[in-house]
Amino acid sequence: WGDFKYPSGPYVTNSDSYSASQSLKVIRGVGQPKGYVLDAVDTDVFEVSYAVKPVTAGSSACSIFPIQGSAIDFSKDFYLALFVRDNGNLQYYNGSWTNTGVTIPMGQWSTIKQVATVSTNSWDLYVNGSPIGTFTNAAYPILPGVGAMHFYPQDGTAGGVTLIDDILITAVPEPATMALLGLGSLLMLRRRGKKS
To answer: The pTM is what?
Structure first.
């Protein structure tokens, strides 16, 4: 989805203009939560990925919610929530904010990827390509049909900036689907080989 501008309203949609030189700016203690709406992914396994850069040491703080629909519902939308604290600690929600053991460095871009499985209510966390662990959220089960990202600038010291970029929500094909695709490719190659 590329880079995109700081929105004029609470949400950035696919049709909003963007510039390759700008990212979504989430400012702590200022304005509405910001969001980005994509096509919903309704598979058992899906990936959520984005880049995050805390800019202002001591006051950058941003919670990130992959959600259904275009508006967050705090009664159910904590299932894949992550929170980049003002000290860089990356936390997930399981009834309360809990450390993942990862620190996101100030002033640097970090890539975050969550691979979620609805049927097992679990997700794997990767930071900068490295596996961190498998997590569950007993308080808020993972919901299918994720199609939006919601970024909430936490209250506190105003002015702390967190940048967000390169957002993707991607379906992961089931093993049976992958096997059929592989078989189809093999048959096509075999058929092509017979013709030559």
So the answer is: 0.78
